[in-house]
């Protein structure tokens, strides 16, 4: 592996924080442009190992170039290999603190916050996002074995969405394209979704809404989810609902703790970029991938914005030289 860690107090032209499709695509472009990018891949950062969300899934069937599909971890190994091939320095550590108030930007690795910081002329934030969870009994056992938070990715499985916040309508519509019948659990007696989304759900013959209902436990044979324990919060009545899929549509959490107080973010914490670019509210700081995208959240769109961030960083560095 050519990814050898440099001396600890390094300065680089560009630092990439995050190792999903966005971070690695940015690295490939920057390394090919001879800008010697440094990529922090994180050590169990944001709940994920290096490589990001795709390391937690099996078949990826919609990433172009792999007509027979590819396993998520294998795809991310290939991204990493390609980054290294062109000279990216990959560091298996988490950036835990960053100061974006002046350039060069200063940042610290986890456990080294008392030491001298390292510095970079430009920074690409590609720290991703993670699905919010309900923390149900049995959830850990059946996560990705019947429970999913990505309708587009796992839509081939008949699924029951749990819905207890403003509806992610497009996700739910996706599910009904694949699943035979979909139950939507709503904790209240009304939907908080926009009127048009609510109407779409209510009029869909493949959807049954269970009002005032919450899930309490995921049950199965230890390998696959087979039913869901549900409770009517008005009557207290409990029962088992036989299902072979459970889809969480309760939103995602962007990994922006590192920069939330320094970059402009939306009310959900997603980094705001100048439309059509990856430029954040601080010159020289770019954001790519799920950390700035609450709409598409796909590997290919993350890779696309990673490419944009690299080209924008490269252009800025060239202008300033
Ligand atoms: P992520 O993949 O989220 O990676 C970010 C990584 O950055 C983290 O893992 C972590 O290691 C690192 N990191 C975070 N914070 C720090 C820090 N402070 N310092 C250093 N490193 C840090 N999309 C598809 O297109 N097709 C699919 O089939 C598909 N299937 C999916 C299945 C599952 C189960 C999930 C969860 C997602 C799936 N997706 C799929 C969505 C896809 O994985 C994401 O859209 C994509 O991974 C987002 O890429 P990203 O580069 O923005 O960040």
TrEMBL record:
InterPro entries: FAD/NAD-bd_sf (IPR036188), FAD/NAD-binding_dom (IPR023753), Ferredoxin-NADP_redctase_2 (IPR050097). GO terms for biological process: cellular response to toxic substance. Gene3D superfamilies: FAD/NAD(P)-binding domain. It holds the Pfam family Pyr_redox_2. One of its GO terms (molecular function) is oxidoreductase activity. Keywords: Flavoprotein, Oxidoreductase. It comes from the Eukaryota. Residues 13-155, 175-306 form the FAD/NAD(P)-binding domain. Belongs to the class-II pyridine nucleotide-disulfide oxidoreductase family. PANTHER family: THIOREDOXIN REDUCTASE 1-RELATED-RELATED. This is Thioredoxin reductase. It comes from Favolaschia claudopus. The lineage of its organism: Eukaryota, Fungi, Dikarya, Basidiomycota, Agaricomycotina.
